[in-house]
Fold this sequence. Notes:
By secondary structure, the chain is of the alpha+beta class.
Amino acid sequence: xxxxxxxxxxxxxxVSGKVxxxxxxxRHTSIGVGGNADAVIWPERSEELSRIVNFLRQFQVPxxxxxxxxxxxxKDGGYKGAVISMLRMSGISLAxxxxxxxxxxxxxxATLSExxxxxEKRSLSGMEFCAGIPGSVGGAVRMNAGAYGNEIKDVVxxxxxxxxSGEIQESGKDDLKFTYRNLDIPEGTVIVGASFSLRxxxxxxxxxxxxxxxxxxxxxxxxxxxxxxxxFKNPNGGIPAGRLIDExxxxxxxxxxxxxxxxxxxxxxxLGNAKASDIIALIDMIKTKVRRERGIALETEVMIVGxxx
Length: 309
């Protein structure tokens, strides 16, 4: 726990960006729940990130990196450690690779919406499937985000990883172990940035595809409420998690101000003042009923961290 005032001052002194202590995580998660984190830190450069990570490890302070706080549920008792927000490490650059390809490099904090918009403006194809995904590059790479037949692993070229020593290493796609909704990296490793191989295309076609995907998301997903995206991974066997939940009769079930969406069963929405415990109770209810009725063990796609309230 990061409660010692001397440690807090040392941490504040080594960060050029913002540092907040005893900060409610409900302000930093897309679903809007979560108790206080001991500290939320916004590093602005890789050297600063390295200093912060080494400092936290030296004093045995747990930490987690986050981007937009999507796919994240922090429990009501908060997180006893430091949350490192990567949002200010968000630079984007383009480099030509022959006549047909462009390499797009982005910091972990760059949002997927920024990349999709830039790709459309520059007539670059490959990232259209990310349209409407609210996360950042770091989270998307860590979760191997995907939709509509594509995944991040299909377009990623390299990933920059900060290893336990604080050094940054660049790993090529062939050296990375991507699986369904996951990149297997050692615990404590921080994704600093990634490069994506895009193809030169036609702006009108790219624009049309992006609008198609955004339209599908608007029609299928409960975007009018705060949510954490898909709660469960789709299990092996071809039946989507949302359909399993629907067929179990759980759509619309509500605990407190958390509700299983009537629009899409794999979404739990915050109707206004939900608690993390309400959301987790719904998750447990879904797991239990689907396992009992269908013999399928659903695995969460969202990350759940912190202490019970």
